[in-house]
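Entry
Fold in token form

___
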Amino acid sequence: MNFDIKDKSLAEKGKLRIEWAAQDMPVLKQIKARFEKEKPLKGQRVAACLHVTTETAKLMETLHAGGAEVVLCASNPLSTQDDVAASLVVNSGISVHAIKGEDNNSYYKHINSALDLKPTITMDDGADLVSTIHKDRPDLVQYLIGGTEETTTGVIRLRSMAKDGVLKFPVVAVNDAETKHFFDNRYGTGQSTIDGIIRATNRLLAGSLFVIAGYGWCGRGLAMRADGEGAKVIITEIDPLKAIEAVMDGYTVVPMNEAVKTGDIFCTVTGNKDVICREHFEAMKDGAIVCNSGHFNVEIALDDLAKIAVKRRHVREFVEEFTLKNGKTVNILGDGRLINLAAAEGHPSCVMDMSFANQSLAAEYLAKNHKSLEKKVYSVPGPIDRKIAELKLAAMEIAIDKLTPEQEKYLASWQEGT
């Protein structure tokens, strides 16, 4: 077994943390139990490029239980939990190539190490495996039956590839599942981003002006939690429909050029690049705090900031202070990377239970149906989405009503009116 991790001696600590996370992941537990009996992934080789967290460890164990050969690398240089990586190698016999804080060269070295498995299924969080295959290792396409994608950012990239006719194998957009983007992006990103900001800064949010760039599911969740902490929430948007929604939800909506003049804390969750750039840094008030919770750190134009800074220093573990020519300072959290994973632990395990249930069942779907799939991006089939919701409700001991035969007939017909 090949692996590249920080320290194998961290395995026991990682094992305990993985066990703790597993207590709040009942859906994946049920799927793993079935996978152990049925082995639906027997013969499959899964290369996964995901955040190496306690919850991801349970997904890897589930895929392995289903019969797959699995290798894991990090989808972000700062998102790896080194004790989890060690436990997967030592206690689960799963190959991991990931070290927290790895540089860009090591990051892509690890991606290529994962691809050396000659995977039949890719499992992405940002489409780096897929893009690396298409750009640098097209010889691997012959082995692939398909892939899955976890994030909004990755799905955008993949749909662009499919539109241009260059996508070489089918991919299931796990992010499209209701039980993923609704639950994960709103409740997971909302809480974990606030957690990361507070851990990094130890600042009080109550009374602060909290600027959120983007009002998609992640932005909605973050706004909800920041508002709950007592912050005054300001939204910047490019989509008029989302901007109206933010206004009707009670938030102030202004262009970023206006928001930078008063904001205390800024967080980008757009999936786009250069959302905060030079003109914005120069207009910010002294001591502004800037972070990102979108997948890639390109949302904040860090090169622009570096060029206009006369001094920079790390003032806390995840806080870098940039001093501008005018004497004002701008503080960047977590190198502009996902603050909820750079400075905290990512989404709570009960959230990732839903997301990774989708990942495991999407892999099973590919194994069973790949011969009939085209080279395009597919949404998670509705029955899978609903099944995961049913399993989650059952685990929460929550019952819901069912349609009567008469109600089903009414909804399916057009003859009955008022």
In short: Residues 120 and 144 are 4 Å apart (CA to CA). The longest strand covers residues 309-316.
